[in-house]
Amino acid sequence: xxxxAVELEAREADWEYTPGRRLPGMGFNGxxxxxxxxxxxxxxxxxxxxxxxxxxTTIHWHGLRIPAAMDGTESVQASVEPGESFDYEFTxxxxxxxxxxxxxxxxxxxxxxxxGALVVRGPGEPALDDDRVLMLDDLKLDEDGQLAPFGDHHxxxxxxEGEVRLVNGLQxxxxxxxxxxxxxxxxxxxxxxxxxxLSIGGRPFTILGTDGGLIGAPVEATExxxxxxxxxxxxxxxxxxxxxxxxxxxxxxxxRGEPRRERFATIRVGPAKPSGASVPGILRxxxxxxxxxxxxxxxxxxxxxxxxxxxxxxxxxxxxxxQVWELVNETSQDHPFxxxxxxxxxxxxxxxxxxxxxxxxxxxxxxxxxLPDDRPGEWMYHCHILEHHxxxxxxxxxxxx
Length: 401
Ligand SMILES: [Cu+2]
Fold this sequence. Notes:
Layout: E1 3-18, E2 21-28, E3 37-40, E4 44-51, E5 60-62, E6 85-91, E7 96-101, H1 106-111, E8 115-121, E9 130-139, H2 153-158, E10 164-167, E11 170-171, E12 174-178, E13 183-189, E14 196-200, E15 205-210, E16 213-221, E17 224-226, E18 231-236, E19 244-250, E20 262-270, E21 298-301, H3 302-308, E22 317-318, E23 323-329, E24 335-339, E25 345-346, E26 357-360, E27 364-370, E28 377-383, H4 386-391, E29 394-400
Parallel strand pairs: 1-4, 3-8, 9-13, 12-20, 21-23, 22-29
Antiparallel strand pairs: 1-2, 4-6, 5-7, 7-8, 9-10, 10-11, 13-18, 14-17, 14-19, 15-16, 15-18, 19-20, 23-27, 24-26, 24-28, 25-27, 28-29
The structure holds copper (II) ion.
């Protein structure tokens, strides 16, 4: 186990998102996405955040089960003022694909690029030929090709979706793969609002993991829905030399916007290389927290959250007391529900996996279970459509020992 020291400076960035086109971005260390942070389970990460912006910021460590004081929200720390710095220090307990992002003026700071990925590796993971992180995002531009203004009333309700699709900060890039190889793709939806029903040229791929790392057993699929904040890990390939495939989002109706088929990247398959990839039939043992039909201990209404405004407070959660929450969405649009600091299992989808963000489709319910381990303090949950979060679609609660 190691201690890893990382310096992150939030600063303005001249963002060339496609050759010859630039935007005034914001990037950790001036890059979009920010630096990839890599660690092994049990490592301690020390991050000094320095704020080189002209407005306050913080970092939220999305999906990491770390102490409340390190969660990066304004309920556990003062936001970091321009010119100041803040030290985050925590141990990473779980293997998986996580991400870090600003938690202040999110709609604008995230759109402008203040996010990055954090990958934690554990023992006994499947061996694939390569491992890459794809942070998917979009950008909303105005007629002059500049960032569209933020936060009008319509945008807050409908969410902000743009016509420029990005992979790792670049518009519809080309990705090269070697024929015959199978890669592990760690995909993060870093968009403010855009839902991504991902397809890789219609070819089958294997789902290996989700928000909280590996799932129990690999799942073959030709598409997977990734909503804002969610992650998915895929085994991709093998393909034949000369194949050209599109990484795209298929039409998905979230109750707003126009469902369309949209390209994120083009995949070109080059000359063959030998493959040592193998995906075992069992990836991990995950014990169910409770029975799929367990009675809810609490109901969370998306409608009430959406209309409740800021400062809502939900009831305390005692350490060690199993939580079964019924997430009820009586609104006319889908909402990706994100719980800070803890993993949950979705009881209503028949799978046993660790999640921190789950889509609650409109006019439906999703039942989740989670067990608050001994990390008391101020926590929160919110809709991960950032405009909804900005509108106040969130609640604070305490975990109490
Ligand atoms: Cu929402």
